[in-house]
Amino acid sequence: MKFARLCVLMVTLVGGVMGKLSPPERSYKILMLLPVSSKSHRNVFMPLAEALADRGHKIVMLTNHPKSSKNPNIHEVTHGLPHYTEDKINMFDTRKDPGGIFQMFLNSLPLIARELYQVPVVKDLYQKRKDFDVIVIDQTFNEVAYPFLYEVPFITLATPGMDPRQSAVLGTVLNPAYVSNPIKDFPRLMSMWHRLCNILILIRMGFVWRHCAIVPHIHCATYTERDFTSVPGAAFVAGR
């Protein structure tokens, strides 16, 4: 049944591109999670939410942005935590040092993980997560919301494009001989040197993300808070 629901949603999306859509058999309840997102990430989610809402589906979005949609089928929930806001980001500095944004997430994500599940509206959504037919989550920088996915059907949406690291976690290992990494794009066809560099970058990214940078810090933040250890899906955020 869960697989059938996912198939219906995929047919809806593909049919929208082709311009050939039959009326949906019924209205589905869809939860979209992007508690840590920039405007560019939101701009990927919102057209999808609007299109599904126009088809009669009920959309609930957990975000860190003020409400913006006027569609009656879209209910936006803002958690209100101040640790990641775009007005604190200088994009000119980011262009000079692209790696600097990762340091910002290294500082902000543990704070968000420590406080997110203490926000009443987030607690309420978590308790009701199984009432939704499917959950759509922003894959990048949103590991803090992964406990929502525990024992429910979900779809990850990679806003920057396919992430080889995340794809491998989900069971599909992309061949580094012809799939570049998210940090540096290599020409097609890749030379032997390009392939070697690509493999090293992918290994370093996966290791640092999982064992040194983002995930361990979120893990430490969540497991030092008594309120969050009672969440059934808490271990899911650490990949256990």
Explain what you see.
- The protein is α/β, with parallel strands linked by helices.
- It has one domain.
- The chain is about 45% helix and about 10% strand.
- It contains 9 helices and 5 strands.
- The chain has helices at about 1-20, 40-55, 90-95, 100-115, 120-125, 165-170, 190-210, 215-225, 225-230, and strands at about 30-35, 60-65, 75-80, 135-140, 155.
- It has a 5-stranded parallel beta sheet with strand order 3-2-1-4-5.
- Strand 1 (about 30-35), helix 2 (about 40-55) and strand 2 (about 60-65) form a beta-alpha-beta unit.
- The two termini are about 25 Å apart.
- Residues about 225-240 have low confidence and may be disordered.
How do the SSEs run, as a string of H and E? HEHEEHHHEEHHHH
Oligomer: single chain
How confident overall, as mean pLDDT? 77
Q: How many domain modules?
A: 1
Range of helix content? 40-55%
Number of strand segments: 5
The unreliable regions are 224-240
The biggest sheet amounts to:
5 strands, parallel
What strand line-up does the widest sheet have? 3-2-1-4-5
- What value does the Rg take, in angstroms? 19 Å
Strand content: 5-15%
The helix tally amounts to 9
Cα separation of the termini: 26 Å
Shape: globular
Based on secondary structure, the structural category is alpha/beta
